[in-house]
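**User:** Everyone, produce a chain:

**Assistant:**
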Amino acid sequence: MAWRLLIILCFLTSCLYPFDYEVIRNHEGDQDSLSLYLNNREYLCVLGNDPTTTKRVYSFVAKLIEQSELRNDPESILVRSTTKGGSEIVWQDSTLMVLSSAETLLNEKRQNSLARLKDFAKSIQLDNGSPPIAIPMQAKVKFKPINHVQLTDVAGQAFGAIFPASHPFLPIGTRMRVLNPHKDWSIVVQVVRHDKGVSDISLGINSKAIRALGLDEAGAAVKTQFI
């Protein structure tokens, strides 16, 4: 009986969370890289293992989920060359990832193909007409839409015109554009600290950022985009 209950539980979990992801750090010689595994298979590899590189991988997953939830056709995913000799992965005119020439060669070497990525994108879209619940099992809260702001005491400005922000788990250094949908005013924020007092669907910003957005209240709804 216990085994039957376990099988049923695993089945229900797989229905709720169609894919799992894991980021693996690699070190080969003097080269560091990060590999993104989806359902225990590598799909992408980028050079470096610092917070900025980690943010690139997280942003790729977030954008993949966003395009999937919009139910865009996975066959429209393409790779095109950049002016610097690298490549960019594009889905429905939205850039999922820009790869340097060295990263493009690295992914070719590791056989991370565009066809495999398209097949994965198809696998996480449901066929019953309802929006896909494409949330990684290991990060069930990590990629809920960030659509609110909270007033926090995060101080100063990050860099120049970029406002500081806090979030429970986004990597330090993550930059996002925040838009007031009622006035079309927007600012760029950068996560400078982790704050468990901020909701996972919110960004913590200070009063200067609130005023720059033209918001009347700290809990107002906004639109955000990874940049």
Summary: The two ends are 50 Å apart (CA to CA). Residues 99 and 127 are 32 Å apart (CA to CA). The first strand starts at residue 21 and ends at 28. The chain has five helices and twelve strands.
